[in-house]
Write a structure and sequence with these properties.
This protein is an alpha+beta fold and 218 residues long. It is built from three helices and 14 strands. Helix 1 runs antiparallel to helix 2.
Amino acid sequence: MVPITKYGFGLVVGSWILFVVIFVLSIIFGQPILIIMTVLSCILSIFNLLFFRDPERNIPQNSQAILSPADGKIMKITEVKENDFFDAEVRRVSIFLSIFNVHVNRSPISGKVEHFSYRQGSFLPAFKEAASVENEQSVIGILDEKGRKVMFTQIAGILARRIVCELREGYQTTAGERMGMIQYGSRVDVYFKADQVDLRVNVGDKVKGGESIIGVFR
């Protein structure tokens, strides 16, 4: 059985308890509305069980690699000006997470968290360009022992309403380590200097958090 993430364990257990209670009531009273509620609560419980799954991953033992922070599909690869952590032109790799993906997020590299911020914002569809700037998000900048920087953002989408991030400034993190999730959504952007990294993905590629390599430092 695939383990359930601690970030959603309460929701999974709660939805199954609700299902059992409604199911028992429907047997006792036999009311059509209770039968309908039983079916709906069963669907919700199964969805939560699948959504909050947290499979183990084979973490590449490569200190030069930048790992994908999330499961999903490479949506865009663009050059942008980043002002929070790099204050320079950088490459941005955008990963879109559907509701069917694993939503546990993992650190892309090992190092010290030099920047953390949480921005309240909109809940635009994650595929829109403006979502990178306007949507609610956590921003995490990591500096490795060789002085190389990687930043990534957990971005809420049209369905997402809660971002979980365990990292804060001063924390040490390890590549592939679980660090949070976006509940019911939706996009993760990864930033790095283009002249320092050989890209290993293309638009349309599917990636796995903590396992797929986004790029390799030169």
